[in-house]
Amino acid sequence: MLDLTLAVVHHLTIFALFGVLVAELILLRPGMTAGDLAKVGKIDLWYGILAGLILVFGFSRAVFAAKGWAYYSHNAFFWVKIGTFVLIGLLSVPPTIAYIRWRRAGVEPTALQVASVRRLLWWETALFAALPACAAAMARGYGAF
Prior knowledge:
With 145 residues, the protein is an all-alpha fold. The chain has one domain (2-139). Helix content is 83%, strand content 0%. The chain is elongated.
């Protein structure tokens, strides 16, 4: 039952994180008001919370669930998945910093600033597609070394 619970919670948090990322893309646009910036900031906070939960549940799953750490730690797709998730996390830092700066400054971001942050969000979204591909390969035993 632990394996099932961890798998379900892990997958739900991943779907939620993707939803939050899409929400940021939708809300981030030129002409944002202070209220819009506050919304994006709150959504971005959830992005960080969900990312942390994904790591907690994902590694709990890898260590305590049915297949165990020996299975995951010796799989190239597992490490590619972790590396991709870390890269997505690193790409999420500049947008977070931008949201904080914009709110503190109390000024509307320029169209160029918005475009720059949106470009990073699109990269995160594109890289996100690699996560389920790696998970599917890993679950089927590909990448074992």
